[in-house]
Amino acid sequence: LWVTNLMLGERAIEAEFEALLAVLPRLSGPVVFVSNEVGLGIVPENAMAREFRDHAGRLHQKIAAIADTVYFVAAGLPLKMKG
Hints:
Blueprint: H1 2-8, H2 13-23, H3 47-66, E1 70-74, E2 77-82
Antiparallel strand pairs: 1-2
Helix pairs in contact: 2-3
């Protein structure tokens, strides 16, 4: 939802991503991100959906790179990918 709001608000998406990533190491408590996986399906037909998929995928990669632990959950089954 956040990525969609950034897109609809015509915000500088990469700058917003970098601002989020910059604050994460300074937080004192645990942070949990929950997001839909959007890269495993078909390529969306409309341009906005493709743009969303690409932005979300890049954000997922950037967060996973700095996260201590990453899980992928499908059908309620967690797969530990990192940590």
